[in-house]
């Protein structure tokens, strides 16, 4: 690692100290502005003003022009979620809770989908739209169009022949095309009563597939770092809609800082932890992740009463703490990334500066890819694994750069704004990142050709650390966008719709959508 820089070793330690202090801030406090760390936003940045607003052409430092495309204003098609036929022509009271849950989850998934907006059931609307209920299901001619509805989804819930199982049926009608759309296997699911929520997510996957041609990912999970009982920052896991939150890595309530979770190949999970005093890289295989997920109880979304202590979410007997996957004397490991070939890169700081290194399969540092006297960090692979985007302050402030996977042909991608950090390379080839503009931090995307788009509205809010969904249709990020508090939000890939997840107000850091390295969106094939 180059030691040309004369920066003191205390620089990185200061970032760590600031990270710890931020966790002690009250839940209602605004998010920290991202610093030059590339992913976590530990270093605070003073509010700055810029002379080039993002919605007009501006001149970059090389004398060229860039234009930022604003978030899309496309209208959302309306999806009418009909109340399920609950048991038959006459409702079965024992199935009501399952029916209500199915309808609620479908409507909430539609709210978060970015391609449709939900229209909830009402008797009057049903009378206008529905000609025959499930299982026959038909709509009245002109009824949905008259109600400004583009799609209608009708469901039914019945007791299956097997004890404890439910028969969940579904049909999707395309009003403009005047025909039913094929939902594949999700048109009829036999599921345990306890898994209705998961069945609803799978059905929404099929609805997105039938409408857009790309199968949805509503049944995936999101990892993130947040405070937990007894732990400054733990690794949490939540469903893609924010439900079923649980502490995945909290060391049984022992205080610590665990951050930067990211899924690797074979569903393994990597993360950074300060267990050894200096940040080291840890890795869990699929069996370990599943065991932790099964052992830790779900945390309800209800807001605790003022002054009431949070109940511990850790198992009575936490699993043994694994040794670090990558660590070293006086070395500090940060965020990592992996491509489809299994190549692993990681940010390593030696006390003077940060560089991006490759790791071998045993976790040993192999090769320095950046060899620069400035800080280079926050790597993320392109979908084909041939390029790496990262953050560097080699021009004075953090900007997003790209190089090939061997560390050559480095190119600066961002020129708009003084601070651009937190890159995440999406399945469609765009790189999402956090950009400081005036007194706001926005989520933006940039292509290899330099085409920029802003996804969030600015307006003094702070939106940080974007992570792409596996299908490339959405991003999750941490934000105080509604001006009320900080929590996790989801935006459509073009910014046309942004919605908060069902999580309480709090402190959220380094969210990471469950995504297999190099695996692209799944083309919808209802008869696969």
Task: Specify the overall morphology.
Answer: globular
State the helical fraction. Answer: 10-25%
Number of helical stretches of at least 4 residues: 6
* Alpha-beta content class: mainly beta
**Low-pLDDT regions:** 1-64, 303-315
N- to C-terminal distance: 50 Å
Biggest sheet, open or closed, and with what strands and sense? 7 strands, mixed
Radius of gyration: 24 Å
Would you count the extended β strands for me? 35
| Average pLDDT metric | 84
Q: Proportion of β residues? A: 25-35%
Structural description of this entry:
This protein has 528 residues and is mostly beta strands. The strands form nine sheets. Strands 4, 5, 6, 9, 10, 11 and 12 form a seven-stranded mixed β-sheet that branches. The chain has a five-stranded mixed β-sheet with strand order 3-30-29-28-27, with no helix packed on it. β14 (231-239) and β15 form a beta hairpin. α2 runs parallel beside α5 (196-212). The termini are far apart.
What's the quick description here?
The chain is mainly beta and 528 residues long. 13% of the residues lie in helices and 34% in strands. The strands form nine sheets. Strands 4, 5, 6, 9, 10, 11 and 12 form a seven-stranded mixed β-sheet that branches. Strands 3-30-29-28-27 form a five-stranded mixed β-sheet, with no helix packed on it.
